[in-house]
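Operator note (shift B, R.M.): manual run for U11/U12 small nuclear ribonucleoprotein 35 kDa protein requested after the automated queue skipped it. Running by hand, logging everything below so the morning shift can see what happened. Input copied straight from the record, untouched. If output looks odd, do not overwrite the archive copy; leave it for review.
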Amino acid sequence: METQSKRWSRYATEYNPIKIGSIDGTDLEPHDRAVVRAIESDYYPNKHVKGRPECTIFVSRLSCNTTKEFINEMFSKYGRIRRFRLVKDIVTGMPKGYAFIEYEQECDAEEAYKKANKMVIDGKIIFVDFECERLLKGWKPRRLGGGFGGKKESGQLRFGGRDRPFRKPFGFETDLQERYHRRELSRRVSSKFK
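Run finished. Output pasted below as returned.
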């Protein structure tokens, strides 16, 4: 169990669709068709995406009325922006509600990650995370059954991301508490006989 406690993390360090579909990251079988679709799909990160992924943040839940200029203004207070892309629908040209912002310095991206999450812009609470496509090995986007998003209460929730981190596996805390309690008892007993 001790090796498991060292390996357990609230956030995914590698993208495994089965584990991402699990509330605590311990599932071994897929529980919905979207997870199966993610496992069976082939996805390769876009080679044409420029910039450094460790300096790039993902901003979502933006209002359709929020302009590129306003987002640029709001996020430039965390540091100098190298690139900015407000993603738009190819057919309609309307914003899809998310953007990618690359800062010149990694520390500026970290600052925006820490401070801008859950900020209100144009009446909507935004979500800020680091770009996953190039940073997380095995990444599968939501359209292929992966991703970290999802609001469906019918079971298609994804875990291990900033918005919905993994919960500790059932019995995890109890086992650690029991081990700690046994160590304390043995220390007390051994100190009495010294």
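Quick read of the result: The domain at 11-144 is CATH 3.30.70.330 (Alpha-Beta Plaits). The chain has a mean pLDDT of 84.
Leaving this for review. - R.M.
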